[in-house]
Specification:
The chain has helices spanning 3-9, 16-25, 27-47, 81-88, 91-101, 105-111, 132-182, 194-221, 245-270, 277-284, 302-311, 313-316, 335-348, 362-375, 499-504, 520-532, and strands spanning 52-60, 112-115, 122-129, 228-232, 288-293, 324-327, 352-357, 383-384, 443-444, 464-468, 471-477, 486-490, 508-514, 539-545. It has 3 domains: 14-47 and 242-270, no CATH class; 52-184 and 193-232; 277-379 and 444-545, P-loop containing nucleotide triphosphate hydrolases (Rossmann fold, 3-Layer(aba) Sandwich), CATH 3.40.50. The longest helix is centred in the N-terminal third of the chain and has 51 residues, at 132-182. 43% of the residues lie in helices and 14% in strands. The chain is an alpha/beta fold. The strands form 3 sheets. It has an 8-stranded mixed β-sheet with strand order 5-14-13-6-12-7-11-10. The chain contains 16 helices and 14 strands. Helix 3 (27-47) packs antiparallel against helix 9 (245-270). It is rod-shaped, with a radius of gyration of 54 Å. The two termini are 37 Å apart.
Length: 548
């Protein structure tokens, strides 16, 4: 069963920690978004002029003939508030307010706002001005203009109704005058003629009609045409847009952080990165060999590298040590540090390691190897050199030492030739051409330096040898023929250069992924290419994890 099938089928649950990790990893985006929102808020508060908002309340009431009468039904629907709101924002009102505040009609229309609560007869005129005086004058002027406009409309309607009544009364009066002229001048009242009776009945009807018209006209003429009254006029001080500056700043900060988090999640969905070893396992489908943290100075932690070497025991102890190819999808994932660190750890353990490099990687690997050589100086068991035989000097007779006679007696004369030790001059420096010597000729410890027969910086690595600890690291070209022993190949970025993949077909491939740097899409593409050419990854290493 393929490991990738199991890894892809098993979805890892996402918790709160995972949700919080993405904004934390992309904290620059979050802070940049919050800073932009805060700059916009600060510009609104301190760069743009402050706005002062004043409010005037007006009670709207219907026109009634008896102002003391109370409507029994639907008192709140006696006035169409939707129509009244339209009248309050009409051009006539806006023109009046523009004349009061000396502003354009468009600016007044944007600054004026009319609120009409549902089920009530109260209208609120809110006006946003550039100063307190302008705001107060705008709100009160809008309310007064509305009341005057509405009253003028009622007066025009009443004038039209009164004119209609007057015209009707004039017609009825003329008819009554005509009827009166038709009556006979001499007529017995006790026994009128039928014609006279008809004219009298018509005259009475006209009189009744005139009385009714006069009564109705008086009612219309006595109606209260006031559309309402101002109950709460605007006055200073009025609230300003800068009064709640701390709350606005806090809201801007929180909104900016929220916007930055959303942007971070969007970028994460568009550019997915490897965040944990589980993410890499789900893509690669190979076991995790180790996690290499960053030590002091950004160098890989040596303890993690030693554990990584233990994880590679199957390759070290195998009967055929095929080349171990270190691959990565990009050049910024710490692949070169892992390759150099593995070679150093293996050499320090006494192995002969061949490290294959590309010519362009020599200048980047050489400082790492030299730094590792300073940390792990070459060590070689001390060898005692046998001094060459020297001719014995002429014996000088020495007077015999006086020996006290003992019980058993002893020699009378003794010839003493002391050993000759010729000290060598102490060198001016502790190290001369990479050879450390003792101050005597009896013991000499020789540690040959790194021999370099290849070209200088920028050239190939063929022939460069470094002594590290008790082992050696031979820097060779990536395309050099394979040989017996441990061979590490630091391959170039595999998505752009196929030489490492070609070498992995004859060896074992170890992938290097950097947390928060390696893109999941590129890693998936690399794994698919490896499997398409018949290379199954031996394992993978996660880099980029700093010390907690």
């Amino acid at each position: 069963m393929d490991v990738t099938d199991v890894a892809s089928a098993r979805q890892r649950p996402v918790g709160l920690v995972e949700l919080a990790r993405i904004p934390l990893r992309r904290w620059r985006i979050v802070l940049a978004s919050a800073a932009l929102v805060l700059l916009a808020v600060l510009g609104y508060l301190f760069v743009l002029p402050a706005t002062y908002t004043a409010t005037t309340a007006v009670v709207v009431r219907p026109v009634v003939t008896d102002p003391f009468s109370v409507q029994s039904v639907a008192a709140d629907r006696a006035v169409n508030m939707t129509a009244e709101s339209g009248i309050a924002t009409s051009n006539d009102v806006i023109d009046r307010v523009a004349g009061i505040t000396d502003r354009d009609q468009e600016d007044v229309a944007d600054a004026l706002e009319v609120e009409t609560p549902v089920g009530g007869q109260v209208m609120r005129f809110s006006y946003a001005g550039r100063s307190e005086r302008e705001a107060v004058e705008g709100a009160n002027g809008a309310a007064q203009a509305y009341l005057e406009l509405r009253k003028g409309m009622y007066e025009n309607q009443r004038a039209a109704v009164l004119k209609s009544y007057d015209d009707t009364i004039a017609v009825v009066t003329a008819q009554r005058a005509t009827t009166q002229k038709a009556l006979p001048s001499s007529q017995v009242s006790s026994n009128p003629s039928p014609r006279t009776s008809a004219l009298l009945d018509q005259l009475r009807a006209l009189n009744d009609q005139l009385a009714t018209l006069a009564e109705q006209r008086s009612k219309v003429a006595s109606a209260d045409l006031s559309p309402g009254s101002v109950t709460s006029a605007a006055r200073t001080p009025v609230p300003s847009s800068r009064d709640a500056a701390p709350l606005i700043l806090l809201a801007g900060l929180l909104g900016g952080l929220l916007l930055g988090g959303l942007v971070a999640f969007v970028l994460e969905s568009l550019d997915r990165r490897v965040r944990t070893a589980a993410d890499a396992t789900a893509v690669i489908g190979a076991p995790l060999l180790g996690t290499v943290r960053r030590g002091p100075g950004g160098q890989p932690d040596e303890a993690d590298l030693r554990y990584l070497v233990l994880a590679l025991a199957r390759w070290l102890d195998g009967p055929q040590r095929t080349p171990l190819v270190v691959l990565s999808s990009a050049a910024d994932e710490g692949r070169e540090q892992i390759s150099a660190g593995l070679a150093v750890v293996l050499a320090a353990a006494g192995h002969e390691v061949r490290l294959g490099l590309t010519p362009e990687a020599v200048d980047r690997i050489r400082p790492l190897m030299l730094d590792a050589q300073r940390r792990n100086p070459p060590v070689e068991p001390a060898r005692t050199q046998v001094p060459r035989p020297r001719p014995a000097p002429a014996a000088t007779p020495v007077p015999a030492a006086t020996v006290s006679p003992g019980a058993g007696g002893g020699p009378e004369d003794t010839m003493v030739i002391p050993a000759v030790r010729k000290p060598r001059p102490f060198p001016s420096t502790p190290e001369t051409n990479g050879v450390y010597r003792s101050t005597t000729s009896e013991e000499t410890q020789v540690i040959p330096p790194a021999s370099r027969s290849g070209p200088d910086a920028g050239g190939a690595a063929e022939g460069v040898e470094l002594r590290i600890g008790t082992g050696r690291v031979h820097l060779v070209n990536l395309d050099s023929p394979s040989s017996a022993g441990l061979t590490l190949l630091d391959a170039p970025p595999a998505l752009h250069d196929e030489r490492g993949v070609r070498a992995a077909r004859e060896g074992r491939a170890v992938l290097v992924t950097a947390r928060d740097i390696t893109r999941v899409q590129q890693l998936t593409q690399l794994v698919e290419r490896l499997r398409s050419v018949g290379v199954e990854p031996f394992g993978f290493v996660v880099t980029g994890a700093g010390r907690d």
